[in-house]
Amino acid sequence: MIDDLIDAVIDREGGFVNNAADRGGATRFGITEAVARANGYTGDMRHFARPAAVAIYRRLYWTAPGLDRVAAHAPRLAAELFDTAVNMGPAVAVTFLQRALTALNRGGRDYPDLACDGRVGAQTLDALASFLATRGPTAESVLIRAVEALQGERYLSLAEHRPANEAFLYGWLANRVGGGER
């Protein structure tokens, strides 16, 4: 599963990009120069290797935030969270999940509210399992929609607070939100 998700992200992100309006600066395969440097890369970003990007995506955006554990319960949700993590950061993606699960727990009757700490731990996984079991076959799709709603709101807010981000808003909404059925 993760191999296909990584390939899709790399295909979507493309090769070398250095858009002056993008605060991320120079990227290759969607990996920013700052992330590449933090992971030991010292060369020119034009030459950053695809296998290094794959390793970073797997480690930092899938395994470290615990999305592999989410996938064991809800693979389509994990795919959506992975894409969100790549674009907004893993802690933001997981916080969206925690916020949605808390808002959907019927006032704590189904499972306790979650601390929105951006980490997939036992409580988050227990709440996810309980939500899926309690709400039935449409639960995963509903949770994906909730995460995407939070994602869309964040994109709009980013564009409202930094006019340069308006250049990216259409693409973010077209390519990132509503893609939970990937």
TrEMBL record:
Gene3D superfamilies: Chitosanase, subunit A, domain 1. Residues 93-177 form the Peptidoglycan binding domain. Residues 7-89 form the TtsA-like Glycoside hydrolase family domain. CDD domains: N-acetylmuramidase_GH108. This is Lysozyme family protein. It comes from Sphingomonas endophytica.
